[in-house]
From TrEMBL:
<feature type="binding site">
    <location>
        <position position="735"/>
    </location>
    <ligand>
        <name>ATP</name>
    </ligand>
</feature>
<feature type="binding site">
    <location>
        <position position="1015"/>
    </location>
    <ligand>
        <name>ATP</name>
    </ligand>
</feature>
<feature type="binding site">
    <location>
        <position position="440"/>
    </location>
    <ligand>
        <name>ATP</name>
    </ligand>
</feature>
<feature type="binding site">
    <location>
        <position position="790"/>
    </location>
    <ligand>
        <name>ATP</name>
    </ligand>
</feature>
<feature type="binding site">
    <location>
        <position position="439"/>
    </location>
    <ligand>
        <name>ATP</name>
    </ligand>
</feature>
<dbReference type="InterPro" id="IPR008250">
    <property type="entry name" value="ATPase_P-typ_transduc_dom_A_sf"/>
</dbReference>
<feature type="transmembrane region" description="Helical">
    <location>
        <begin position="105"/>
        <end position="123"/>
    </location>
</feature>
<feature type="domain" description="P-type ATPase C-terminal">
    <location>
        <begin position="1068"/>
        <end position="1316"/>
    </location>
</feature>
<feature type="transmembrane region" description="Helical">
    <location>
        <begin position="1099"/>
        <end position="1119"/>
    </location>
</feature>
<feature type="transmembrane region" description="Helical">
    <location>
        <begin position="1179"/>
        <end position="1204"/>
    </location>
</feature>
<dbReference type="InterPro" id="IPR006539">
    <property type="entry name" value="P-type_ATPase_IV"/>
</dbReference>
<protein>
    <recommendedName>
        <fullName>Phospholipid-transporting ATPase</fullName>
        <ecNumber>7.6.2.1</ecNumber>
    </recommendedName>
</protein>
<dbReference type="InterPro" id="IPR059000">
    <property type="entry name" value="ATPase_P-type_domA"/>
</dbReference>
<feature type="transmembrane region" description="Helical">
    <location>
        <begin position="320"/>
        <end position="342"/>
    </location>
</feature>
<keyword id="KW-0812">Transmembrane</keyword>
<feature type="binding site">
    <location>
        <position position="1021"/>
    </location>
    <ligand>
        <name>ATP</name>
    </ligand>
</feature>
<dbReference type="GO" id="GO:0005783">
    <property type="term" value="C:endoplasmic reticulum"/>
</dbReference>
Amino acid sequence: MHFFGHHEHHLSGLRRINQIGPAYHHTPLWQEAQETQLHLKETYLWQQRKGSRVSTINDWLQIQIGGSDDLKKKKPSKQNCIKSTKYTLITFLPQNLLEQFRRIANFYFLVMTIISLLIDSPVSPMTSLLPLVFVIAVTAAKQGYEDILRFRTDNVVNRSPVTIIRNGVESIIQSQNVAAGDLIVVERDCDVPCDLVLLRSTDPHGKCFITTANLDGESNLKTLMVPRDLPTVPIDQMHKLGIIECESPGTDLYSFNGKLELAGGEGRVLPLTAENVLLRGSRVKNTECVIGCAVYTGMTTKLQLNSRLTRNKTASSEVYVNRFLIFILIALIAIVTLLYFLKRYNELFVIPKLTYLGPAADGYSVKQFLQDYLSFLILFNYLIPISLYVTIELQRVIGSMFMEWDTQLYEEETDQQCVVNTSNLNEELGQINILFSDKTGTLTKNEMNFQQCSVAGRKYHYKKTRLEDEETKALIDINKFNLDQKVFFQALAICHTVQVATSTTEEAAAAAAAAELPAKDNNMSDITEESHNSSQHSELNVSHTIETSLSAHPNGAHAPVSSSDVNPLLISDDGYKVERRKRPQVVKRSPNFTRANSQSNNNNSNALPMDQLAVNGLQSAPNIMRPASLQFQRSNSERDLPQYEQAANNAALFGHRRAHSYGAPNAYLTSPVGSASPPAAGLFRAASTTSRESYAAPTFTRQPTLLIRAESQRRKNEIQQTLSLLDYQASSPDEKALVEACANLGLVYTGDDDEVLHVRVVPPHLDYKRPFGSSKPREERFYRLHVLEFTSDRKRMSVIVRDEAGRKWIYTKGAESYVFPLCANSAAQMVAKTDGHISDFARLGLRTLAIARREISEADYQEFVSSLALANSSLENRKQLSEQCYAKIESNLDLLGATAVEDALQDDVADTLVSLQAAGIKIWVLTGDKVETALNIALSCGHIPPDAKKYIILECKNREDLLVHLNVLEREIVFGMGRDCALLIDGQSLSVALAETPKEFRDVAVKCKAVLCCRLSPLQKSEVVALIKSSNENYNTAAIGDGANDVSMIQEAHIGIGIMGREGRQAARCADFAFAKFCMLKRLLLVHGHYHTVRLSLLVLYFFYKNIVFMGIMFLFQFHTLFSSSSVYDSLFLTLYNVIYTSLPILFIALTEKPYTEETLMQNPKLYKKNTDNKQLHWPYFLMWTMFAIYHSVAIFYFLYGIFSFNNVVLNGGQTAAFSCFGTLLMWSVVIIVNLKVWLESMYLSYWYIATIILSILAFMITTVIYNVINLDYDTDIYWAYNNLLASLPVWLYIILCMVACLLPDFTLKMLRRALNIKSFSIFPGKQRKLEMRRKFESTYL
């Protein structure tokens, strides 16, 4: 790719204001700044060094465009490197080990291993070392693998090729080597490699269209602009433009303060705002190519700074696990201490009497004390389950995969599966007490349909192509609009920031192919159904756009197609001349193209037939690739296109070359299409060939006939197809719905051309006795002077336009509470009527906006322009100064009316909310809508029960008023005789509650059945969640939302759940769990939450149980060895017990356990309450498992001890059994009993699960057989001992009797609990009864 060689073409497509000469003299500021060393705020420490292109002055960055001359000698490297990895090759081992040894079990085993190496250990140090190494290695391998994946992902980004211009020389480098000041070339459909200030665009009006889905989750197109009055210079001179001064990097995606100080004698300064900056992570769309100057690179880009704002969340179950570990640790110390003192007693009083044992050791020496005490500590260290953590981690990771594989959490329409971002919170899904939910896009679909409006104090219902007066029921189309109605819908058609997007070549070809098919006959149900019977928008197909503006004279002699078949929405009004010029087939159109102004063709005799005209409309434009001179004169409107003769000569000369920016798809440009291309009939609506006969409809009746209705249906289809081709892209679905409603009524917004808005007036219902083509559509043009953007503080947006008569108007659209105060006093009566209508709309659950305008005098406008320019040039408080200018011009408005848009409910929302409430989950809806709208939605979706008493708190401004409301509400709850109460509170009152009475508000609100908070900001949402989390009741909270404004709430809650909705994916990316529809939340909580809670509880309790059984036998054995700290087990058994013998069955059942079927859990939400508050991890359950463990260890040991004491001749050959047989038989019994115990406690039995139990027992037998045939004199000698036991019939009889004796009580109790429905908590009946009585008393009387 090469840019240079044709300077005369560089400037032909750009606005030239001031020519910059080749000399570049303005350098003193830069040279002085290079000699200083200053620092950035907080975490950013950028040191000034020779050759650097970034300097700081008073915490502001100075960046020279194109870099300094010193860079020729020293090239910067890896300034744009992105790093998301945790480790490096050097730091991996120490850092990972440090993280793992923070866990109690790992650190404990490390200490035990070190002690066993230092003293005369009773068992081999390998018994502690090998399990520890295994657990550490598995965890390190998992974390290392994840870090390698992150490293590879980083390399894909860091090593991707990027085209830059340094010192006027174009080159291709890796993305990581981009430095601040570099001129970056980004082509269409490519990702921006760093934060850039836009300096050049191929768009003739200096625009650049981007999507920011990776930044804020919004998928709509956004428009950026080249800084106003920026001089146009040749590309090889762009590095001499000047110096950019901007603020230090920050996390706010929507603000940027800076200035561009131009080089040269005039030294002009241009303000830089957020609309001039392309952020890393955004993607260029509908713009062929842009050039920008890098300002923030690498980890200081806004995207990377925002990606750091995540925090780790831990499951509440870990609290109980840590409590159990502390309990076991205390028990371990107690056991070791007890055994030590018993040993000292024996050494003092027993061993001296047994002379054959020799003299006793000196128990008073410190060395002997440490030897004895630490020996017992090492002997019993297996009370701490070392493999518990790694097993829990494996269970969570694999369990999260099960959720992602769940087909009922998969939406086929959007091809979205459930996504688990945080697997260590799986069991928390079964612990939720309070659910915080957004409304728009979460409970509702965020699919807006225009329903009603209020115009000049009268209410109208929207009926697709007409309005219905609510009072007279008269249907009014655009031909019968009065002045107020025309002005109102004209305001809706121009007061917006909607862009007209384009479609891909493939989509356009598909549309053309589809249009060539025979027209489908209208269904009789469609024909007979009048438009006033349908008030819903049909789903728009947004995959096409109009690539050609074609028109034909209705009486054209050479037109073989009847003029009645031409869609009048696409007909030009400039003399009905036939458009004949070649249009590019593959180059994407910018949204600001013109469809109405076709150039006149002076040679009418050469008019082409319509089908050939369509063919010519898709001919390739010249220079469709970017030539050596970087063509910036890209044809984006009909005026810009060259004539066909030039196109024919140049079309085949150029191919196409993709940009080198990373993230782009494969090449999109095909070879130029020749004249033999199929006709693109899809560019306009082809009517049925018999439609002309319908014009002979009877004229003797005034009633609509079927023929007229059929034609009306055909006109609706044409409008719908046109809207589909226009493909409106709006910043909000409300705005898009309003523009589409205007188009259906006949005011079609067709795009903008250099800020000239084109609105085509096409009456949807024409005189059906004559062809459509005989009615000439009219186009209105408005020059957009300024756009006052919508912000969360202003709650409104405005546009200033100049009409064709030269008059200037300001149109304002926004929330009525912010627009009404701006209206003139003379409109008070109008405001009162409209406010009443808005209240009616809100009670129907509709979203409302107020519309106003006024004419601006030239003096007011000039004052506004000068004050706004002054505000934009200020580097301090720019936002506040701009808003002051906006507020001054947005005054004394004339109210036009209000709109009402419906946001349809999500599928099965009511069933989901009612089920969750039945499951004991209290639901709080936090929304930015007004109280009336939110209340209606809450009632219709089941959030507030119909019979609940509703208490509304509005506009409380002080603590005293709020406390009065709270006291009244609390009395209602106490004396309400069990009736449900619902609380509704607005943002103003909630601000007082959060600031002055947080505890009182929290304590009262949590007693309500449902809470609805309205008019909240994103910050208030997170503050409400934090307030509930601070309660002493330890509520487990979850937050669900779909938009970027819900991220703070989602991250604040214990569990964040994101909806992959229409507002984008940022909420889904920041959430712990994400899926496509709100109704899937029911299955996620009631099924997966229940299962994961039960599974983890069983896993944790079983791990402590099996280790207590294991070590309990060791404890009992010490009483029969004079407390000599001898081990009854061989070191092999100590090493493999937790790793192989008992790990597989519990892991398998922890992944598959199902106490109830999925259908049962979905149909009985009350079962969810059985596991909330981690009930199965409370002390009664733990102590019950502990008692079973103690019983099993006593039964196993003393049963075998009795056999060996009574008669130890148990081998087939009549030999007596050795000590090694005693220990091996004990271990064999333990492995069988603990594996059968987990089988007995399991509810969901499968062949695979039973196979894991059998395999675990066989694993013990096989490893022991192999071990005992090898004569190793390493630890205890069990040579051939196990083989003798296997051949002994009495041994097998003992195993069977031991199993029955140990598990019969377990089985009996389990059957009794089922038969008599006895709860496990009944073992502590008194304590539970007291707690329940106390809670009841407090909730009733206090």
